Every structure is written in C-alpha cells, then in structure tokens.
Amino acid sequence: MERIAYLTSAYLTPVSYYSKLLAYDKIIIEQHDHYMKQTYRNRCHIAGPGGILPLSIPVVRSENPKSPMKDIRISDHGNWRHLHWNAIESAYNSTPFFEYYKDDFRPFYEKKYPFLVDYSEELFRLICELIDISPDVTRSDSYKTEFKPNEFDFRETIHPKKDFREADPDFIAQPYYQVFEERHGFLPDLSIIDLLFNMGPESLLVLQDSQSTSADRLRLS
To answer: What are the φ and ψ backbone dihedral angles of 104, each rounded to 5 degrees?
Structure first.
C-alpha cells in the first residue's frame, strides 16, 4: 500500500521533516493552508556558538489574516538575506563540509524570490540533491481535512513550539557530530543544514536511521 505524508512548505526544515521523505512513498507539500507565524513555514533553527539560533524570513503583511501559503510574499525588510547568510557562515564555517557546500547555498541569499513557497521549494530540491535522495513530491491542489489509513498528516506535527518526542514519537533523533557539541551537548532536530554541514554524504545514513517506525509497520502490513 502506497504511504503518503502531508507536510507544510517550510524553510530549511528540521531533520525530522527530511526523515519523512525516506519513510513514505509520496510526499504532498501543502500550499493551501493558512500562513501562521512562529512555525517552520518561514523559520529554521541552527546551532550557533551560543546555542540554538532561530532564523526567520520576514513576509509581506496581507490584508487577509487567513492568506494561503501559496500567496505569501517575501519581504525585503531588515536585510534578512545578509543576516541569515552571515549567521549560517558564522555557525558552520568550521564544520567539515561547509566549504564543500557553501557555493550551492550562497545564491539563495543573493537572489530575490517573490513567493515564500517557491523559495523554500528551491532550497528543498537543492538539499535533496545534495543528500542524494529523490522523493516523489507534489504540491497540494486543495486543503485536505480527511485522511485514508495510508495517509499521514504531519502539517502541524513538525513545529518549533512542539517537543518532537511527544508530537512525533515515530521520529528517532539519531546523534551525529556537531561542531559545538562539547559546549552545548547534542542538539536534536535542528535544520537539515546542521546535519549536512556536519556530516556531508553520511547525512543519508543518519536520516535512514531516523525513519518513522509507523511507516515501517505499515510497509509490513
């Protein structure tokens, strides 16, 4: 039975998000949900010298408080591209693979994208390519509220305000090398770039070990 996972559009999403790409046969990226602040839709968490550092993309305020994600535009307020890239470079410049991947990511902080979903999707596709995975991914054509037994809704499960241990117990955070681990201990479920810059090609192995156990049970059923 084909396993389908529903995910939100999101910016440099956490490791748990990418683990779903391996655990499910098909991924539907929601674009008809309402934009909500303080979610991964426009933010990510990286590991800086001082600990967890949130990075948020400013968006253009809409007159409609229930604007669908597909209509959300990126704002140029606050020179955020420069600030994000400086923060990423400062956090990961000493990691084993930052030099190897930085030229792939830098253009995303130089070019302007009008819409948030397009920007996030381009980053998503790059990261999939660098990790060497080819998930079957499509955008939603409407907002789904009812799900079949083989469909799994993670749209509000993977959330910066929720403890993944409770919200998503099927995700198993596998420890991996982090450059500031001696200072802060292992920080689980950060942005996928934390895994990529620290582990490089071995990122795929970490994701494979983090796959959803519920999906494995469904596969065997």
So the answer is: -75, -35
pLDDT digits (tens, 9 = 90+) for 17-59: 999 999 999 999 999 999 998 999 999 999 999 999 999 999 9
- Name the amino acid, one letter, at 49: P
Q: DSSP label at 42?
A: S
CB atoms within 10 A of CB 90: 13
Neighbouring residues of 57: CB distance < 8 A, sequence distance ≥ 6: 11, 42, 43, 74, 80, 84, 116, 119
Q: How far apart are CA 162 and CA 12, in angstroms?
A: 17
CA distance 12 to 120: 7
Q: What is the DSSP string of 89-156?
A: HHHHTTSTTHHHHHHHHGGGGTS--SBHHHHHHHHHHHHHHHHT----EEE-SS------TTEEE-TT
CB-facing half-sphere around the CA of 182: CA atoms within 13 A: 1
The pTM (predicted TM-score) of the whole model is: 0.93
Q: How far apart are the first and last CA of the chain?
A: 9
